[in-house]
Amino acid sequence: MNKDKLLVPAAIVFLGLSFLIGSHVLANALTDFGRRLDIETEDIGSPLRYMASELHEFRQDSTRDSETTQEKQTMYLSEAAEYLGFSFKELKFLIEEENINIPYIKINRKYVFYKESLDQWQRKIEQQEYVLE
User: Fold this and answer.
1) pLDDT score of 114
2) Is 99 found in the same domain as 113?
3) CB-based burial label for 13 (10 Å; 0-12, 13-18, 19+)
């Protein structure tokens, strides 16, 4: 019975210590982040304010970009498949087919397609006849 009464206070102490250690680790990470960006790190809020202002700028830039650019210029595999009228598996098959020559870039196991290159490829393919087996 006495063991059970000691478990709750021990758990509270353990939770408090975990909170203090986590806060210390987070404070050190933010201070280090501030030093890397040459931000004055006397108060811990400086790196946080910097990150918040960068995020705000990024959101404004992306909003501005989406307003000026109506169409996306790069696409991933699923987007390119939809754009070309193929299923995901069909486009993957065509990429692996040597004589089809779909223009793409492979970055870290992801396929990136440029809209303009796909349009040129599609015009070129329309002039030729292919039979896939």
Assistant:
1) 92
2) yes
3) exposed
pTM equals 0.43
**133 part of a folded domain:** no
Of 39, 68, 97, which residue sits at a domain end? 68
**Which domain does 47 fall in, by range?**
2-68
Helix (H) or strand (E) holding 113: strand 110-114
| pLDDT tens digits along 31-81 | 776 666 555 555 556 666 767 777 777 777 666 555 444 567 889 988 999
Rg of the Cα atoms in the chain: 27
- Decide: 61 and 67 in contact? Cβ < 8 Å: no
* Helix, strand, or coil (residue 110): strand
Distance CA 77, CA 116 (A): 15
3-class DSSP string for 44-63: CHHHHHHHHHHHHHHHHHHH
